[in-house]
Amino acid sequence: IQRVFVHSSVHKKFVEASVALANEYVLGDPMDSKTNLGPVALPEVPHQMANVVRDALLKGGKLAAGAAMPCNDAAGKGRFFRPTVLDNCNGDMEVMKEEVFGPIVAIQSVNSDAEAVERINASKYGLTSAIYTSDQNRAAKLAPQLNTGTVFMNRCDFLDPLLPWIGQKLSGRGCSLSVHGFRGMTRHK
Fold first, then answer.
1. Rounded to an integer, what distance in angstroms lies between the CA atom of residue 88 and that of residue 21?
2. Which of 11, 50, 57, 103 lies in disulfide reach of 83, CB 3.0 to 4.6 Å?
């Protein structure tokens, strides 16, 4: 999850819970049982994430948790980025426009489902969306309005061999998993 559009009525509570969760992560060696967040794979990515955070802060974002720069783990090793929660985000920020492959979540408050749909669909990417609600009918009404390949309810990024994995817009070409993905990789003779 990277971009979160949360209703203004629960915004403060959501941010507080997000900060608490972000602060629970322990950075370190993935082979250490106490670690639950390992290093970033590519050396340039922590600095790219720092630039994205800096951009958000310059454009009015608030650093609710985490850091604006790469860090070391407790052993002094590098290539880490502390889980970061950015609040007060908007569509002018890189974190809301580009895919960031790291532990950064950007939160924007919205006043209605229609506003959330508009902001979600404004992205040039469209791989996955998740709707968190206790109202299944509400989720069923919203899901078809989202320009994403997959829409989950109360979970995200769950891979199931029976569920097609497909993106829209710049988030992918073709389909994998499920019978639909299989058909795309085979031909009848």
1. 18
2. 103
Please state the separation of Cα 57 from the chain's center in Å.
Answer: 18
Q: Are strands 165-166 and 175-176 parallel, antiparallel or unpaired?
A: antiparallel
Phi, psi of 176 (to 5 degrees): -125, 170
What's the N-to-C CA distance of the chain in angstroms? Answer: 41
Stated as kind and residue range, the H or E segment containing 169 is strand 168-169
Residue bearing tokens 């499920």: 178
Measured over the CA atoms of residue 20, residue 114, residue 125 and residue 91, the dihedral's sign is negative
Question: Tokens 């290093």 sit at which residue?
Answer: 39
Provide the β-strand partners of residue 130.
Answer: 152
Q: Is 109 exposed, middle or buried (0-12, 13-18, 19+ CB in 10 A)?
A: buried
**One digit per residue, pLDDT tens: the chain, 189 residues?**
899 999 999 999 999 999 999 999 999 999 999 999 999 989 899 999 999 999 999 999 999 999 889 988 878 888 899 999 999 999 999 999 999 989 999 999 999 999 999 999 999 999 899 999 999 999 999 999 999 999 999 998 888 888 887 888 888 777 888 888 888 778 877
Rounded to whole angstroms, the Cα distance separating 136 from 142 reads 10
